[in-house]
Design a protein that fits this description.
The protein has about 190 residues and is of the alpha+beta class. It has a single domain, classed as NADH Oxidase (3-Layer(aba) Sandwich). About 45% of the residues lie in helices and about 15% in strands. It has a four-stranded antiparallel beta sheet, with helices on both faces.
């Protein structure tokens, strides 16, 4: 039997994506409280995500979303990791409020531990991609777009880790092929 790498590439990427989700789930969390949501996007949903990112580039006036959408078009899968807002009752003040009770009167203010846990989980998942020699990059723009599309729900903040297995990483030396308008004169 001869197995050509191009025939098993997607399967390999998906195996690594599953391992990345497990690494994110088991990453250390403040007080052992898990406020993470973790999903993987593939297939037709990748195309839908990239198309919406092009729309969001115009809507949000963030032209780099075009470049990042092109990265999604070149990806095999995207791992999304997000965090819900939930104070851990530590009254640490790192969120800017003296107590968790005070923070909780500001529902859109995340607990510093929620964001820290998100960062640790993203780092753990990214390490799995690197250990398996897949090309990847952590992207806020893709996470925000996936969140707005409802691909991951109930989260305050979402980061995305697109994955590719190609001869050259599409996530570095990135240049948008979409025309960018010159800034308006002042």
């Amino acid at each position: 039997m001869i197995l050509n790498e191009t025939k098993s590439r997607h399967e390999q990427v998906m195996q690594v994506a599953r391992a990345m989700m497990a690494a994110a789930r088991t990453a250390p969390k403040g007080k052992g409280v898990d406020n993470l949501e973790i999903v993987t996007v593939e297939g037709g949903d990748l195309a839908r995500l990239a198309a919406k990112m092009h729309d969001y580039a115009e809507e949000l006036n963030r032209m780099f979303f075009h470049r990042d959408a092109q990265n999604i078009e070149a990806s095999e899968a995207v791992v999304l990791i997000g965090t819900r807002i939930a104070a851990l009752g530590m009254d640490c003040g790192m969120c800017g409020y003296a107590t968790c009770a005070e923070k909780n009167t500001h529902q859109t203010c995340p607990c510093a531990f929620n964001m820290n846990d998100l960062g640790i989980a993203v780092g753990s998942a990214s390490a799995v991609a690197a250990d398996n020699r897949l090309d990847s990059r952590v992207m806020y723009s893709v996470g925000l777009s996936a969140q707005r599309l409802g691909m991951i729900s109930g989260c305050h903040a979402v980061f995305a880790i697109p994955l590719a297995c190609t001869g050259k990483s599409p996530f570095f030396d990135r240049v948008s092929t979409r025309p960018v308008e010159a800034p308006a004169e002042k």
